[in-house]
Amino acid sequence: MTGFAQGLLGALLRDTPYITPQLFLMVVATLMLWPGDLFFNRNEKHRWAPITLVVLAVTAALIGRTPDGEGFSRMFRMDGLTRGFQMLCVLGAAATVALSVKLLNGLKQQTVEYYALILFSLSGMLFLCGASDLISVYFSLELMAICIYILVAYLRDRATSVEAGMKYFLLGAFSSGILVYGISLLYGAAGGTTTNLADLDRALALTPTTSNLLVFSGVLMVLIGMAFKVAAVPFHMWSPDAYEGAPTPITMFMATAPKAAALAAFLRVFGAGLHGVSSDWVLPLCYIAGASMILGNVTAVKQESMKRLLAYSSIAHVGYMLLGVLSGDPRAGAQAVWLYMLIYIVMNTGAFAVVIYLQGKGEGERIEDFKGLGRKHPVLGFAMMIFLLSLAGIPPLAGFFGKFYLFKLAIEQGFVTLTTIALLTSAVGAYYYLGVVAQMYFREPDGEPVAPMGATSVFVVTLACALVLVATAFGPWLVDWASKITWV
Fold this sequence. Notes:
This protein is mostly helical.
């Protein structure tokens, strides 16, 4: 027993460097809850925001210094794919924290638990980005999701927030059950020998034809469980209500960081673990991607709430990014998805920053609230127009560059019909994005001019707008950067 304990301790010490960023986040978040919560009184809780941003900066530095390799009985893998998507998750979390302070101050809802939950959820995302075993995929998803369930229902005095959190929790628990059942079926189909993705791919290739139905059922259930996490159609039912009921910074958080982590898991599970049985999941995933593009864009046209419009828009963008997962070339697919996700996070952060700022003035919930914004606040209106046009994929903005790279890859891999659907639905997306632009510039403003923005809002909006405007000029550099997102 002593030898076993020594061996276990030695293995933990050997493998711990691969998960240093996650351990750092979890330790800091725990200390924030206690005794850290005693450091500031109720009126000083907003000071946790800059501390959290420092923690996230240290986390990013740790990710950059983490060595490549596999650990924990090959359940976690650190490589270019892991590191690249982990950085996207940290970027999304940092934007969320930066934009939370002013809104939470206005609502008098500043608590240390808010920032600690973001860090705990982020640790789950970092685990998920590198999970190389179906068991570690499941536990990482749950660590990420449970914290987000709480954050969605954070505004306990609002019925819509509590209702959104409850819906998300119940549907999330149901999808987790489907995912676990699918994992168990695949484990059985592999002869009860492994859930490691690399080994599973080899084991399923040797599965007798009599087990084809078992393999197909397992693959389909895993696909359903993971499609729920990215709000792909028809597993998107929770998304509009959760996005509308959650605090707006958490809405932005859900639309960016968790999707980046879940897409990394998609790429690894289906690109590595189930690559050999691609005939079982390519067609269902094609239908899911196509349905997400169509329903997301068409339904967004009828929305009157800005948050619901962005929610359905995010469903459509997930459909586009699934084109990269469908790619027969895992490396090129990962590069295309990573590049698109990076640009999407910047665009989405800027758009939500404008919405959050207007909410602080009692506006921003409805599309009508943007009426005349280009005249009341020309700089803010111009920035919002840039973000919306980029989300629509209008050249020469960054959003066009991301879509071009992704659609080009899909055509090269033979998904011509699906790419055609993507192009047509992008035109529908341009219609409702331009509808908001029309509200800002072709409708008479109501009320007094908008007050000047705070320093944080100015920084976020200016940085995001600058990145969107200059990204196309640095296209080759971005592609080269994205080329590092690959398996070692």
